[in-house]
Design brief:
Order of helices and strands: EEEEHEEEEH
Largest sheet: 5 strands, mixed
CATH class: Alpha Beta
CATH topology: Nucleoside Triphosphate Pyrophosphohydrolase
Number of domains: 1
Strand content: 35-45%
CATH architecture: Alpha-Beta Complex
């Protein structure tokens, strides 16, 4: 008999680039799953939300900025013990506001060549590698 199917968790994340080609990344807080790992900011898609709307909401909540969602990139999935995360990345531009972290203890702008030096959470690794 096959085991129980894992919970499927659809998540969006943002690829924000500054004028110098650096990409914004954030470190997961202590006390949460995958604490201390680096990720592209974002969060779960709620029932009835489009991925684009979920991303706008999550980035407003986590970074306190307004974004314009752009192109979708190739999704990534990873089987964690708590479920399978399907991560949907989107490029976006900052429309207004200044980044103020409300969830993450640390965030930084990182050049593409330095992205691979961070300790990434597993679902974000294929997206990071595609940006190199």
């Amino acid at each position: 008999m096959p085991g129980p199917t894992k919970k499927l968790i659809n998540v969006v994340c943002v690829i924000l680039e500054d004028g110098e080609g650096r990409i914004f990344v954030a470190r997961r807080p202590e006390g949460k799953a995958l604490a201390g790992g680096w990720e592209f900011p974002g969060g779960k898609i709620e029932a009835g939300e489009t991925p684009e709307r979920a991303l706008e909401r999550e980035i407003q909540e986590e970074l306190e900025i307004q974004i314009e969602v752009g192109n979708a990139l190739t999704a990534s999935s990873y089987d964690y013990d708590f479920g399978t995360v399907v991560l949907h990345p989107f490029r976006a531009n900052i429309l207004s506001g200044v980044i103020n972290l409300t969830e993450h203890p640390e965030g930084r702008w990182v050049s593409r060549k330095d992205l691979s030096n961070l300790n990434w959470v597993p679902a974000d690794i294929p997206i990071m590698q595609a940006l190199l």
